[in-house]
Amino acid sequence: MTGGHQSGLYFPRVFFQAVLPEICTTKTYNPDAWIEECYFPAQDDSVKKLRAIYYNSKYFPEKGLKKKYDEFRLTRWGGSFSPVQDIENTGSICIFAVGRDDDKIKSVAWVASSVEEEDLIENWLGCEVEPGRFMMRSYVPQPETELIFPEKWFNRFPTGKEIFSFVLRAFPRNKWTGSIDALLLKRREFEFEVFMKIENANVLPRIGNGFKTVEEFIKYAHSVSNRRKSRTGASLELNLEAIFIDEKLAFETQVITENRKKPDFLFPSGKAYHNHEFPSTKLHMMAAKTCCKDRWRQVLNEANRITPKHLFILQQGVSGNQLQEMKDNNIALVVPASQIGSFPKEWRNSLLTLDSFVKRIRTEQLNFQRLDQWIN
């Protein structure tokens, strides 16, 4: 869809180290192996002879290639008829399971086809699947990063705001030389690492102590799962709020509009929104969601005075049909700059990056002479 020449799914090195370690080598050029069959239960269909390949041209300069690759992919899925290469499944959760029986390798794949299926998968995992994040159940050891946390965090699980304050100290705006798009993604990744380490430190001892009843275990498991789910959305809002403050934008969060709706961010204020003397063309809103899928429809009635409504997402790529439907409903997408290339070429110029959105709002607010009287 994006015009790229690489086909198939990208998988990180750790996956191939666990499943196909024999191709994790730079002694031969583009080593490969074959997965005998991949079964799709939802379609009751199979793909024969998946090709697992390590593109390692980075280590073979003598080939004289312009692009130097160092990545792993699974190819030969059967083209656009395959669920994993159907452009309408862009942004969907994909589960991929692999098993080896002697020299034969077989696999099963499931591509979620609805929000309900994705919710079910996330319930199984006990956490929200963030766009572009690879999750793996394996016994391959991961490198540890030494982090020093406040002592009280080991006795009481910190709030999302406490964790984010820790992240802000590690990545302050005044010491960041890159774009705010890159800063948001860097903070998010670091925050996830911090959260997982704190969770392990708090949860593992409790599990080790055991439970007296099944009900006690289930209650505790639900509390851990719910905390994981609530972290993701709240984290994104905290990240955006911090950037808007650093960039000196006038805004409010969770302002009540029509029918008790609460947009995540309203520019410049609730006072301005509810006074019809304030021009509607100077009002803006942003909703923040990790994935859009059909969730973008939730934004449509959040602020009736505002057109278009901006939606910030982390999802890597959206199909052309969905993008057209959002445009028809006056939804303007804002995405991290590094992810623009994952969208269809014909739509890229219509997307805003976080940096371009902030500059647009800031310029408008600086040029609006009477803004001060509308800020609470």
Structure in words:
By secondary structure, this protein is an alpha/beta fold. 32% of the residues lie in helices and 18% in strands. It is built from 8 helices and 12 strands. It has helices spanning 13-19, 115-125, 160-170, 180-209, 214-246, 270-274, 320-328, 354-367, and strands spanning 9-11, 32-40, 45-55, 71-75, 94-101, 104-111, 252-253, 265-267, 284-289, 309-313, 331-335, 352-353. Helix 7 (320-328) links the parallel strand 10 (309-313) and strand 11 (331-335). The longest helix has 33 residues, at 214-246. It is globular, with a radius of gyration of 23 Å.
Tell me the helix content: 25-40%
Overall average pLDDT: 87
The helix tally amounts to: 8
Low-pLDDT regions:
none
In this structure, how is the largest beta sheet organized? 6 strands, mixed
Fraction of residues in β-strands: 15-25%
Count every beta strand, where a strand is a DSSP E run of 2 or more residues.
12
Radius of gyration: 23 Å
Shape: globular
Spatial sequence of strands, sheet with the most strands = 1-4-3-2-6-5
Secondary-structure element order, N to C: EHEEEEEHHHHEEHEEHEEH
Query: What distance separates the N and C termini?
Result: 46 Å
**What is the subunit organization of this protein?**
single chain
What structural category do the secondary elements indicate?
Answer: alpha/beta
